[in-house]
Amino acid sequence: MSFTQSERIPTTPTLPTGETVATYGTYLQAQKAVELLAEKQFPVRAVTIVGTDLRMVERVIRRLSYPSAALGGFLSGAWFGLFVGLLLTLFSPGGSAGVMLPAILFGGAFGLLFSVIGYSFTRGRRDFASSSQIVATSYAVLCQAEHAHKARNLLADTGGVVSGWPQPVSPPAPPVGAPPSDPTVGYPPPTGTGYPPPAGTPQPPPGPPGPPSA
């Protein structure tokens, strides 16, 4: 079975193409979405999971000291010695298991020695053990344009589906109050209209009283 050029995995770093059909907060959710597409006989070679806003997370496991470094080195060396001892037992002519214990002890001793020496060079600069991961804040499921509509329909029940239609632009809200350029703001209405002046309009001082009527 041969694949077309567009279906082959690129050998050089290349940005993915396609439409975003769904977005999820964790990688497990995106993985389950692709597994659902595979169960429903969807062509999953058209699907790509893209992590956005990558961050390097370093989780501190424990504090290091000479005893902890020696114990960790001995255990890792003992596992390697156990593996070597099993190989010697399987392929030795006599098949004797007497080499198992010496292999474990020698492996643990060498592991302890190398771990203590390595810790002595880094002591004071890195006195803790940690584990690092690259984590994304969100994961997008991309699909080729010819299969994007079908993928959205299949993932409709899982949540996180992104519509392929552009979002409508809401009209701007009307301005509140009169615009600053309105010439009627701050001025009394014309005389003879019968309307009272607006609140806050300065009134002229009263004039002298007129002559009494006969």
Automatic annotation (TrEMBL):
Compositional bias annotation for Pro residues: 168-214
Ranges that cross the membrane: 69-91, 97-121
Name used for this protein in its record: General stress protein 17M-like domain-containing protein
Keyword Acetylation in annotation: no
UniProtKB keywords: Membrane, Transmembrane, Transmembrane helix
UniProt-listed InterPro entries: GSP17M-like_dom (IPR025889)
Organism: Cellulomonas wangsupingiae
General stress protein 17M-like domain segment(s): 20-96
